Amino acid sequence: MSASAVATHALEATAARRIASAFLPDFALGNRYDYYYVQGKLRSDPLYPGALAALRGSTAPLLDLGCGLGLLAHALRGDGQAMAYRGVDTDAAKIARATRAARRASLADATFEVVDLARTLPQHRGSVALLDVLQYLDVEAQQRLLAGMSAMLTPEAALVIRSPVADDGGRSRTTRLFDGLAHRIGWMGMRPQHYPTLEGLRAALESHGLYVDCTPLYGRTPFNNWLIVARR
User: Fold this and answer.
1) % helix / strand / coil in the chain, to the nearest 5?
2) Domain coordinates of the chain in residue numbers?
3) 3-231: which CATH number, 3.40.1190.10, 3.40.50.150, 3.30.70.940, 3.10.129.10?
4) Helices 139-152/198-206 angle, 10° precision
């Protein structure tokens, strides 16, 4: 599917509430931060409809690099996509919460583990998702990761990347400010290292023999986010 044809709206409120309910605390007076964060993100961010459309129709196992709380796994199952899912992230606390929420939601064939992508890349064959991760790696690490992910793709699989890109526009400046704030308040453990250009991403993926389609994925956000879908 062409990236230009994917949905650019957020999930519906009902779907967002259903997914967020898996992140409710065990007790009435428990911390509900994740519950409200998940619901707000799913209702405002066009990332998940875009990623779902790009992966729809493939049964290849999916590796979600930098999975965070594992929201993509919940969105996939809600969309009827049943491919094996493996989420990895460097943040052990988020992985623990992702595992708990997946168990509460009875997500089938979904696993999570702690992996530092700046140091190692898991073994995998199938589809790969890399959502809002690239800017936290330096240039060399980005190039290694793009090469490694490209090598993982099987003929029926897709590489789905959502990344902010560097340009001279106001959206790019806003993205930098927000990412820096997310690090300072502790939501993101890593500081942004390098924002790739759209032209650089396309050239790098094409050099590995992939067909690449790019589309802006702004939605109602102020960020300079793009969806890049690559296939063999």
Assistant:
1) 40, 15, 40
2) 3-231
3) 3.40.50.150
4) 40
The rounded radius of gyration (Å) of the Cα atoms in the chain is 17
- 90 vs 48: CA distance, rounded Å: 21
Query: 67-93 pLDDT, tens per residue?
Result: 999 999 999 999 999 999 999 999 999
User: Are 149 and 135 a contacting pair, CB within 8 Å?
Assistant: no
Single pTM value for the model:
0.90
- pLDDT tens-digit series, residues 141-173: 999 999 999 999 999 999 999 999 999 999 999
State both tokens at 80: 């009827």
Any idea what DSSP says for residue 190? S
Q: What is the residue-wise DSSP string for 57-93?
A: T--S-EEEET-TTTHHHHHHHHTT----EEEEES-HH
Q: Which own/partner contact pairs does 12-19 have at CB distance under 8 Å and 24+ positions apart? A: 13/43, 15/42, 15/75, 15/78, 16/42, 16/43, 18/78, 19/71, 19/74, 19/75, 19/78, 19/105
Which of 51, 71, 43 has the alpha carbon at shortest distance from 1?
51
Contacts 24+ apart (CB under 8 A), 76-79: 76/52, 77/105, 77/107, 77/108, 77/110, 78/15, 78/18, 78/19, 79/52
Among the residue ranges 56-70, 82-96, 107-121, the one predicted with the least confidence is 107-121
Query: Hey, CA dihedral for 141, 143, 144, 150, is it positive or negative?
Result: positive
What end-to-end distance do the CA atoms of the chain give, in Å?
Answer: 13
Q: With contact defined as beta carbons under 8 Å apart, do 37 and 10 qualify?
A: no
